[in-house]
Amino acid sequence: NSAQGVEGSHKHTPLQTAQNIKIPEITYHGLPLSEVLINLNGESVKRDPEGKGVKITLAASAQVKAGTVIALKLNDVTLAEVLGKVAQKAQLRLNVTDTELILAPAAGKP
Question: pTM of the predicted model, to two decimals?
Answer without folding.
Answer: 0.86
